[in-house]
Structures are given as C-alpha cells and as structure tokens.
C-alpha cells in the first residue's frame, strides 16, 4: 500500500517568524488530511530544505510524494530551480513517485480567497 506525503514548499527567510504562517498552513492541512503526512520544506535559509525533507520521508517508507509550491507566482525559483531539484530527487529515488504541482498563486481558488481578503480590508 502506498504511503502518501504532501510537501508544502516555501522559499525560506532569515527571520524565524517568517515561517509561522507556513507552519499554521501545514498544521491546518495535516488536520484535513489525516491519512497523508504533511511536511513543510524550504528552498533556502530554513530547515528542512527540500532534499532533506524528501530523504526523511523516504527513510520512513513514504513512496508517493506531492510537492506543492506555496509561492504566489511562477518566478525563477518555481520555473527553474524547483524542477531541477525535483529531477535530481527523481534520479536519487527512482522507486518513489514524486509529483510537482503549480505554484499556489496559479490556482483560481487561492486567487479568489486573496481577492476576498482584499475586499474585506476596505470594508
């Protein structure tokens, strides 16, 4: 039976407080997906970085990973850096299914939620 994990992939920053909204998102998502392991990973400046997060999941038997970039736009990190990292991870773990989805900001539901937030801010 396949063990699924969802990796929320964020940029990372020097200030530890920057990660707090992402940690809350990870917790909320985990509560909604009790049968899926939900992890948070970073591109840089914070731990765990994506290769380490994948290694940790694989070492405890997860074999079906989805990487969801929590970025608003499809900039250089998502368009260039992440696909290279995912290709390297697929080469390192050929027995593992690794799927990468679009950046969160490319999803209409995410954009609608942000629009609603912006509209509420002027009320």
TrEMBL record:
Protein species of origin: Undibacterium flavidum
Keywords annotated in UniProt: Lyase, Metal-binding
Protein name: CbiX/SirB N-terminal domain-containing protein
Domain of life: Bacteria
A Pfam short name: CbiX
């Amino acid at each position: 039976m396949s063990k699924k994990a969802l990796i929320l992939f964020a940029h990372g920053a020097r200030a530890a407080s920057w990660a707090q909204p992402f940690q809350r998102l990870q917790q909320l998502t985990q509560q909604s997906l009790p049968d899926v392991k939900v992890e948070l990973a970073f591109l840089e400046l914070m731990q765990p970085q994506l290769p380490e997060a994948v290694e940790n999941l694989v070492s405890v038997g997860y074999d079906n990973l989805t990487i969801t970039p929590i970025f608003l736009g499809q900039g250089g990190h998502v368009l260039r850096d992440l696909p290279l990292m995912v290709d390297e991870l697929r080469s390192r773990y050929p027995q593992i299914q690794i799927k990468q989805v679009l950046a969160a900001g490319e999803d209409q539901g995410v954009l609608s939620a942000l629009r609603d937030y912006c509209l509420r801010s002027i009320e």
